[in-house]
């Protein structure tokens, strides 16, 4: 809930305070909106970003966007980049293309690697937050002091966190900066844009002088998504381990004028002058990552003042030669020194959490940073929201660090190898063109499952039960702790198709997915009836999985949504043939047509191929049951007869509804 | 350009005045926005519609939406309905499903029949208009008097049309109605919603009394999209020929509570009590078309006061029995008497045009009315805009009536047969269940190409040259006067795919599409070079097809955009191997990467199958050339060597740029 701006020093309460409204903070705020949580999100920047910053979107992120209902907008505006090319010096030193190479993962998702300005991505998430709540980002607000009261422990009614907020919007200097940041594709825009994020910290000090009223906010939980120089991380006394490297890079977003053949294709170009990364973007833009540190060889120091768009351009021209390169339109540019750092802990007291760049920084060249940050925010967001709502035990909050820290380590490992490829010696004689490409390919392939998000590696926890039941599930591809391999299903009642990424909407509910098998067979139908009877039994009180747990107030009647996917041919089945517990009647909204699905092909949609059970590694006759967490990861898998274990899974962290 | 609301009686000038901001008026306004035309669009309703009205979207409409850049939004929100079912009484009188039947046309387009509230469709077009212009719909504005001055004839600088506008927004009574119309899914909303469109005419009279300043608008062109009771049609003295029938229908949009199995499937249900049409919609809504005239058998008259939602519900219950039917949520309802009328002429003086319901009314049951109306507006919009911009001769305006009147006739023919199916005797004994279904199917199939828009039947005119050149094009499926069969192509420079429906964007330009054939072959490459040389030759002045015609001021450099689609394998070809005239260099935006396309398959997208030449019926080696009009219909087809005929085609109606 967005509270009014106080005219004088004021104290207020909020359940969740999110510091930082970049991609990870917005993803966390998305969950507050979906669960109807009283939350605030503040950002010290007076405006959102309009150009530049991150741009790479991996397939897993796009799957999550689909579950949030915004992927169609990304797809409409973003640039696709499925294939990769590698340009290396040939025997006579001339640049040669090696590729295109299509990653095998291109077939594992309905979505492919895309590129789009961070500004637009933030717009889409913001629109979704507004659609579901009154939460608005409060910009030009700096968090200044932090106090944590350990006394109340896990008391759900306590507000142990105290933060002082200062608004800087009224400061004339700040206002000027805000208006400069308005959207512009003219080169004059870059003066403002190339202020590195860390310099914004100075703004807080400058504004101490201004007579702006403070606000004291008391919160139950805080989520710090405030970037590499995170204020929150500092307040929590969490170190940021690692180091800066000597490598300095320039980044330019331009509309290039060049005869280089692959300027509109994702590629690397290696020459004796260094390696650049070429990233085609929306609206004819191209981003280039360019090594510039060699310019400072004379004194061995990194002098930022020497790095200009012109200097970056000159380096691009040297590397791309004999191809020509120039531009008239410069949309954004920046320079950065690679720092590779990680926070050893992502949380404190189970009350304060940090996410995104605040817990991991690295070179941006793997096109993964924004994805990891958004997935951090996505991971912690629903857990905090669920606990605040009173539906879940705070024990689930510990899984945030457990799940995301290991991935941050992998990220840095990947970055170290990949970024190294760009800075090592690139003489053609060194390894040979083919060798260079091969080693780059090897690194990409080694980390691809992780990078694309096909594997999450989430370990055993209250939210992930790794012990799947039954001998019939030994070849199952539904793996607790991993995502659901996307498939397209037909709705039984309508015959229309939808990808599971959209079907399993990120609406806050757990999905109990009943793979009903071939319901034409009497024995299987009987197994399904037995399972349904278990799901809907009404005594003893609260024993039904469907009514046992709290509802999400004002959002959904049950925290556990049951979806059925059968494997009989679609024309041979009817919605009303399924047990009523699987397709309940609502007195106002009628029968739940959206709950019965079919794994059958469809003549007018090639993506709907009737191979869901096959892709999921589940027996078409016997079926199985699995649980999808609110963030689209699998929590548990079992046979029909293991259904009591599903109750056990939920009982591990969900509070029962006390018969309400 | 939207002009400020005058405080006193005022006179103003606009190039185009559009009366009526429903679907057809908005489509016409879309073109004003895209061409940058000074235009105004007024509507007598104080607010836009929020519920009810039309909802059927045929595939051709969706293809046009894709060319406008809004189809992704429709696709995200709308309900699909590809299959059709027919329920008829079986031998024992019980209802039996016959189907589902998948129309063959389902494979002819990337899009399928969809259903979505007219309110949302209007939103999407409005957003697009705003994206490209400052044009805003002026609501609560009634056109009251009309004068046409025949003196200036075709003088492009004259404003021969004078219309008096009166604003009714300030009237308290109107205000009340406006606020009632705010979005609500509560049943109470229907009191307002079921005011039939014609009753709105009374509002004008009521508001004569109010002291609201009038405005006199002088316009070059007027487009009347003001519905069945069109004021514009009346001013033009164009009759509305046809008649009302005795058949009265009720329409209800509800969230049904029913055990009828196909309530979420497009179907007809025939019983001795009549035939209803079931239309599944977005957000769990279902629309039902229900015959209600039988209730008034006693006095043989249609008494509107007797038609209530309850009466309609009772009839549905009778027809669906023994299935149960009820609802708690009624989103909208109305009742109407079928009138089947057509205007014998769609225009006067080549200055005034009428479109949509103003020129054809019929029963809504074919799900085609809004589609036809939007396509009317789409057809007249770009033609008027192009003439007003000074780029084209007014002769093209005559093609509006020629192209659309024949289709309106077909529409009424279709409706007569189809609606008749719902009102004829439905006793099981009459023809037998199978016979009923067969005759319904026959009508659907007979008109399907027309209804879905796969065939437009546009005849020979300055804009459609039916004489295609060369013996190699006898089997060509690119037929002047018809749409381009949609295919997915790969962009040569990027390798990414796009449907031609999106590629041929409705941006105001004509597309000259060069099907370059297999450019690996020397002879074919030579033919292409010769063609390109013709396209780019610079003397005598203005002889190049690329620079010969006016630009669209502030929108695009050339009125004719050249796109190349070759048939060589994508990996064996390079963007820079094509003649420069086909991929020109812009000093600011660089090379035109988006102009060279390839008909090749792609491993990660099944829709991109490398069969464009095959589907278009064009020889893969020799290729062809064709012209796509701004509204996505084919204007001319020929061989490379016929290219002078393309110039002749354009010279027939485009003005040359006088070397500007």
Automatic annotation (TrEMBL), chains A, B:
Q: Where is this region: Disordered?
A: 172-211
| Record-annotated FAD-binding domain positions | 14-414
Point out the signal peptide segment.
none
Pfam families referenced in this protein's UniProt entry, alphabetically: FAD_binding_3, Phe_hydrox_dim
Q: Which UniProt keywords apply?
A: FAD, Flavoprotein, Oxidoreductase
Q: Which GO terms describe its molecular function?
A: FAD binding; oxidoreductase activity, acting on paired donors, with incorporation or reduction of molecular oxygen, NAD(P)H as one donor, and incorporation of one atom of oxygen
- InterPro entries annotated for this entry? FAD-bd, FAD/NAD-bd_sf, Phe_hydrox_C_dim_dom, PHOX_C_sf, RIFMO-like, Thioredoxin-like_sf
The Phenol hydroxylase-like C-terminal dimerisation domain sits at 458-657
| Polar residues bias (residue ranges) | 176-195
Protein family according to the UniProt entry? Belongs to the PheA/TfdB FAD monooxygenase family.
The record's PANTHER family line, in alphabetical order, gives: 2-MONOOXYGENASE, PUTATIVE (AFU_ORTHOLOGUE AFUA_1G13660)-RELATED (PTHR43004:SF20), TRK SYSTEM POTASSIUM UPTAKE PROTEIN (PTHR43004)
Q: What is the protein named?
A: Phenol 2-monooxygenase
Q: Which organism is it from?
A: Penicillium chermesinum
